[in-house]
Specification:
Blueprint (H helix, E strand, L loop, with lengths): L4 E8 L3 H23 L11 H20 L1 E7 L2 E7 L6 E4 L3 E8 L2 H5 L3 E4 L5 E4 L4 E7 L4 E5 L3 H10 L7
Parallel strand pairs: 7-9
Antiparallel strand pairs: 1-2, 2-3, 3-4, 5-8, 6-7, 8-9
Helix pairs in contact: 1-2
Amino acid sequence: MEADILFFERQYFRQKALWLILAGVNLYVIYITFQQVFQGINVNEDSMSNSNLLISNVILLVVTLLFAIMHLDTIIKEDGICIRFFPFQLSLKKYPFSTIRSLVVTSYDPITEFGGWGYRFTFSGKKAINISGNQGIRIEFKNGKNLLIGTNQPQAVIATLQKTDQPWYL
């Protein structure tokens, strides 16, 4: 039910470096394809076949479109936190407050702690779902598992969680 939503955030991959790399790679592959397919010029002696070059273009386009539509939804309701990492999760995953031992909004280092952004797992059992930035909702569940949900609105998350009157949240 929409009425019990206290907080909603949608994050997209909007890092300039990511988009510059994707644009550069796409333009380079398009240039190579144009040279080989339409002008008959092989860039080097190990050039791919024309069909493989066209397949490479399609794959790069799909990856670029995937990054364009990929987003993380975070919803805080009266009874829990819901997330969706679209397009990998089509429905919301709910984490009821009753399953949470502790929760804190904190800074973290996505590179050293989780190896980057996205849907991340570590060998130590930690899990992160993040898109950008270095702020997150760090959750420890009663079953001992951990989850970090990235947020670009830490102050709004704190204000919302304070309204829930959960005993584990300061």
